[in-house]
Amino acid sequence: MAYSLRATPRARLERAPGPLWLVALLGACGGDGDDTETRRYENIGDIALAPADGAMTVSVLFDECLSSCNKNVGSCSARAADGSVTIETLLEVTLDNDRNGVCNSACAQATATCQLENPPSGTYSIHSGLRSARIELPVSATTQVIGDGIYNP
Q1: Residue 25: pLDDT above 50?
Q2: For position 115, what pLDDT does the model report?
Q3: In whole angstroms, what is the distance from residue 100 CA to residue 131 CA?
Q4: What is the pTM of this model?
Q5: CA distances from 135 to 16, 19, 36, 66 (A)
Q6: Is residue 152 part of a domain?
Q7: Which of 83, 85, 81 shows the shortest CA–CA distance to 56?
Q8: pLDDT tens by residue, 33-83
Q9: Paired sense of beta strands 55-61 and 38-42, if any
Q10: Shortest CA distance to 72 belongs to which of 98, 99, 91?
Q11: Considering the domain boundaries, does residue 1 fall inside one?
Q12: pLDDT tens-place string over residues 96-117
């Protein structure tokens, strides 16, 4: 049986011995500032509602693992109409070229908050992208409405 010695660059990285893969990964954090790339993540993250004066605070914990080499900008918007609440979230992640390739490997998460004026009391469908839930509004305590249960504001 013959074996091929050709491998894709990804396969070579996966087979790299010892800490070589770490050097390759951390090297990706460096740059000369000319190749800045911004990744956009829309309608992701765990979403919670909390009471505020005449409104509710919408809190988003984005479920994307980020390194210290990233500049992160999270935002959200919320609006209510006709028994439905639409929450749009956006996380923009840009490589921080000012770090000169010095990054820690800790996984950090970004957050965002926005306000939703209290709609009339009742049961509402909450929508964020393809995800949805039903909940009584307004809330009287911090309540996770979309997510996998790990959000704890």
Answers
A1: no
A2: 96
A3: 38
A4: 0.69
A5: 50, 49, 41, 31
A6: no
A7: 85
A8: 455 788 899 999 999 999 999 899 999 998 777 877 778 889 999 999 999
A9: unpaired
A10: 91
A11: no
A12: 766 666 777 677 788 999 999 9
What is the spatial distance between Cα 94 and Cα 78, in angstroms, rounded to a whole number? Answer: 24
Does residue 24 lie within any of the structural domains?
yes
Neighbours of 143 (CB within 10 A): 17
Q: How many domains does the chain have?
A: 1
Tens of pLDDT, residues 124-151: 999 999 999 999 999 999 999 988 654 5
From the CB of residue 13, how many other CB atoms can be counted at a distance below 10 Å?
13
Residue 18 domain boundaries:
9-146
CA max distance for the chain: 73
pLDDT for 13: 26
Q: By the 8 A CB rule, do 61 and 112 touch?
A: no
For tokens 């988003």, the residue is 60
Cα distance from N-terminal residue to C-terminal residue, the chain: 58
CA–CA distance, 58 with 114 (Å, rounded to integer):
5
Please indicate, yes or no, if residue 14 is contained in any of the structural domains.
yes
Q: Residue 17 corresponds to which tokens in the numbers above?
A: 């011995």
